[in-house]
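Running this now, will post back.
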Amino acid sequence: MQNMDIDELVALMKKRDRRATSRLISLAESDMAAARAISTRIFKDTGKAYIIGVTGAPGSGKSTLVNQLITLLVNKGKRVGVVCVDPTSPFSGGALLGDRIRMKEDYPPGQVFIRSMASRGKLGGVARATKDTISILDAFGVDIIIVETVGVGQNEIDIFTLAYTTLVLLAPGMGDEVQAFKAGIMETSDIYVVNKMDHDGADRLVGEIESMLDLADTVEMDHGEDHVVVEVRKQVKAGWRPPICKTNALTGDGVDALWAAIEKHRSHLTKSGEFARKNRNKFRQEIIDILREKFALHVEEALDLTRNGDLPALLDEIAARKKDPYTASDGIGKKIADAFKS
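Update: finished.
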């Protein structure tokens, strides 16, 4: 798409045109060059929206809880953007679950913008295009952006660097809850949410999380201690003990108290200076992700069978055990390095 077209779309987006905003998101998601062009035009208009991450294992009730948060925020007069990061189809590259179809869309016109996106296979569940989408929604003028991640259990850690407040949902009766403390997502939580509070085992799960927090708060750690407890202890030492909120996402019970905890955490970030640190970390990771994607594109070009006639012969050599994959990759790496220089 020509720059003039992007300029026109950005101008319409700033007038709160939803179709133009959707088009910009689609361009940023599918074309890195377009994403760069969009970013240079809107970045100065970002930084106003507060970003909330919602993660947790499948079946914990993330989408239902997000729906309750949207309703609460709309009733408070807030404009809300929602990004649902779904698993990626290995064939089409598109999102598989389509969380937006599980969220009601009878909100007042113009107050809620919901977008489903594919994770594109990224283990952390948040692709580079997701970050561009957040910037676009920020410039679009929403007050709160909620990012709901894939929910694959142990790999939902990217959201911690992306969001200002991260909610980790847990639910009783989904297996051995103690094992959840070994999962990477337990380290990333600013607020623990025990959903399905009416189910048996909810109070026990709360007690187990409290015990972990007590351990992080009082025990002197050494290198042999569990890494989850060590990371949680860093949060506690920074002046924030992650609270535990019990909710019932189906009925909305506990959602008001959860929002109060989110606002308290936001206040803590501002007063402690952690907000600025989180921003720096967020941009650091974004730069790394952009560079990683650029490098991946060069790799794909180097391996493109239609443009690299040497590759089939190289694969034959490896299959015949005449050359090992590491040695073969050295030659490809040199071509990539030469591409970077050009």
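DSSP finds 13 helices and seven strands in the chain. More later if anyone needs it.
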